[in-house]
Write a structure and sequence with these properties.
There is one protein chain. The chain contains four helices and no strands. By secondary structure, it is mainly alpha-helical. It has one domain. The radius of gyration is 24 Å and the shape is rod-shaped. Keywords: ATP-binding, Membrane, Nucleotide-binding, Transmembrane, Transmembrane helix. This is ATP-binding component of a transport protein. It is a multi-pass membrane protein.
């Protein structure tokens, strides 16, 4: 089973992960700069730029995390919807024989919970 557009989504997630890593490095640099300056006896007022830059980078990092989660949620929901549609089309195409053979409870569980588990699986493998 191949997931359409999975390479594109993986590429975007990888790019966002690299961007997030750069933001973490920026946070680290700004915070260590402030701490080192304060440790050597400097005033906090002389470090306002570094403190402000730290909070801006911190916010940007969390913005990237939000975008990654949003992108992954959208992709997983889209794929789950497609799978659910394919399952229901097959059930209607094959007819009531498959429902009788598998059981209506089993088919309902597969259509509802099974597809939700696939959505969770997509979250796990892509994140």
């Amino acid at each position: 089973m191949a997931l359409p557009n999975s390479k594109k989504v993986m590429g975007m997630l990888a790019g966002l992960a690299v961007l997030q890593a750069l933001f973490v490095i920026g946070q680290t640099y700004m915070l260590t700069s402030v701490i080192t300056h304060l440790w050597s006896g400097g005033l906090i007022t002389s470090q306002l730029f570094e403190v402000a830059a730290f909070f801006i980078i911190f916010s940007a990092r969390h913005g990237v995390t939000f975008l990654r989660d949003k992108l992954l949620d959208h992709y997983a929901a889209e794929q789950a919807s497609t799978l659910r549609k394919q399952l229901l089309e097959k059930i209607f195409r094959v007819g009531p024989k498959i429902v009788q053979k598998q059981g209506s409870g089993n088919m309902t569980t597969m259509a509802l919970d099974g597809i939700e588990q696939v959505e969770n699986y997509i979250h796990l493998i892509f994140f």
